[in-house]
Amino acid sequence: MGKRDRLSGNEAVAVAMRQINPDVVAAFPITPSTEVPQYFAAFANDGLVDTEFVPVESEHSAMSACIGAEAAGARTMTATSANGLAYMWEMLYIAASSRLPIVLAAVNRALSGPINIHNDHSDTMGARDSGWVQLYGETNQEAYDNFIMAVKIAEHPDVCLPVMDCYDGFITSHSVEVIELLDDQDVKNFVGEYKPKAYLNNPNGKVSMGPLDMPAYYFEHKRQQAEAMKNAKRVILEVSEEFYKLTGRKYGLFEEYKMEDAEVAIVLLNSTAGTAKAVVDELRSKGVKAGLIKIRVFRPFPVDEIVAALKGLKAVAVMDKADGFNGAGGPLFTDITSALYGKADVKVINYIYGLGGRDVRTDDIEVVYDELLKIAETGSVKSVYNYLGIKE
Amino acid sequence: MKKINWDLNNISWKDITPGGIVEVPGSASDTITGEWRSDKPIWDKDKCKQCLICFPVCPDSSINVSEGKMVGIDYDHCKGCGICANQCPFGAIEMVREG
Predict the structure, then answer these.
(1) What top-level class would CATH report for the domain B29-97?
(2) Residue B1 pLDDT more than 50?
């Protein structure tokens, strides 16, 4: 059985890293993810892991070192935030297209500029099309659990893609919660030994990786990569089921909170779900049929499942903690509405909220549900693309 | 040694190696890259004194040497850079326009 402990989100993820005992961790510090490699460096220094810890000079180098190590056949992980993730950009695509199952703790922080260290999702949203699987978590427990599952999802032979474990900077990364840790041995058994099919240090099967890929073959490689992302949906559910059997903690593609008979609902990611659940409870106590969907798996995007969950609702608000700068809405909104297109006639509005760490409280969320109830009653949408809590 | 399948032009995306992994490394000699060339080195056997300076300066290992003697140029891999012609102390290699 596991044990209960009080840990910050970052500390929990560092503990997961220790329990996984990867071959290589290469990282560069950046707020608010710094603590992950910081705690882990202490574990490495104290001899609690067998890991080669590589303190590199930049995030571009961190991801490059991870790519080299993973290609050599080493189970490899790292952590970063915001501009650190942006600095990895080029290498994120190379990791994914080279089909290297690296795991990254992506501690969400607003991307500069103007420079800001607080939480929003503009960093990982920008990497949403880089070919990485993206898991999002509301709590310290979810950040910890997703990190352990990420290893198994990434390394599955039908996937072989890198995975980001995304959780909110400061709100989740630095707040201390009581969480349930797995036994070290259970984590070890769960993730198993890393057995890549082809790797550079294999003395019995020499290969070359990262070659020039000309028009005759490049397209086929991208098509194959797209298939791996499609496979990831099934694999995530299988790994989550196995995790449920081990821990009793159930994870799907998204969490449906009081959705059974809901007429209006909010869709969002990460820690704001906790605040929104409190509002749903309050509305339910007044007889309002409000619900909430918290997306866990953003890449691959659970298109069919989202349509099934939102079909028949009178009004839905998608809340984006990152603007889309496409003049039409945020990235989650765009994906939700394109999922629904031609499949369900649901009125959907968008709220951009909490940018740069702007606090979002229950009374802010109430504003959103009030608007949804107005739409449900009148059947007309006043404005699709909105800003919550902006100073007008 | 595993033989490389060069018939990739019709390979399905389902069968191509993930991420473009090359399962037979060190296979550059099997690939004909000489067709990139626009200038071609011509070796004059009579002017050649077998000093072999051309051999180490060639960046593409395209000087054919047999039993310690220069015997010709590997046009399957020579890119026509002209370093051999430039370095030859005896004017035994001349660059001419390809084709």
Answers:
(1) alpha beta
(2) no
The whole-number pLDDT of residue B4 equals: 52
Q: How does strand A297-299 pair with strand A133-137?
A: antiparallel
Q: Which of A100, A213, A223 sits opposite B20 (nearest CB)?
A: A213
Contact criterion met (CB < 8 Å) for A221 and B13: yes
Say yes or no: do domains A3-247 and A254-387 share a fold.
yes
A295 pLDDT more than 50: yes
The kind and range of the H/E element at B62 are none
| Average pLDDT, integer, range A51-72 | 98
**Which fold does the domain A254-387 belong to in CATH?**
Rossmann fold (3.40.50)
d(CA A304, CA A143): 25
Instruction: List the Cα angle B11/B13/B14 in 5-degree steps.
Output: 100
Q: Which run of H or E residues covers position A152?
A: helix A140-155
Question: Could you tell me if B2 lies within 8 Å of chain A, comparing CB atoms?
Answer: no
Phi, psi of A59 (to 5 degrees): -75, -30
CB pairs under 8 A between A and B: 54
**What is the homologous superfamily of the domain A3-247 according to CATH?**
Thiamin diphosphate (ThDP)-binding fold, Pyr/PP domains (3.40.50.970)
A318: three-class secondary structure by DSSP:
strand
The pLDDT of residue A269 is 98
Which has the closest alpha carbon to B18: A316, A229, A339, A323? A229
Q: What is the reported pTM?
A: 0.91
More confident site: B35 or A194? A194
Distance from CA of A199 to the nearest CA of B (A): 9
Average pLDDT of A353-359? Answer: 98
Q: Do A100 and B26 touch (CB under 8 A)?
A: no
- Summary mean pLDDT of chain B: 90
